Amino acid sequence: MILASKQSRFTRVPPLLLLTCFFSLAFLNRYVCIQLIRQLVVAVGLIALIEIRD
To answer: Which domain of life is it from (predicted)?
Structure first.
């Protein structure tokens, strides 16, 4: 019974809102990925500098 009401409520949500949520999530995920890659590059660079100095 509860599941059916949830399903009907979900179908009542306008597709535009769902698309907006999806795109904002995708943008956030991309931003997080860029930050992680940047930190990884910095960490690798620091390790390389330490190796070169030794």
So the answer is: Bacteria
Report d(CA 34, CA 4) in Å as an integer: 40
Which residues span the domain enclosing 26?
15-53
The Cα–Cα gap between 54 and 22 comes to 48
Residue 19: exposed, middle, or buried by beta-carbon count in 10 A (0-12, 13-18, 19+)?
exposed
In order of 13, 14, 25, the CA distances from 9 in angstroms are 7, 10, 21
Q: What is the pLDDT of residues 6-54, one digit of tens each?
A: 666 666 667 888 888 888 888 888 989 899 999 999 999 999 999 988 7
| Paired tokens of 25 | 């999530």
Domain membership of residue 30 (yes or no) is yes
Prediction pTM value: 0.47
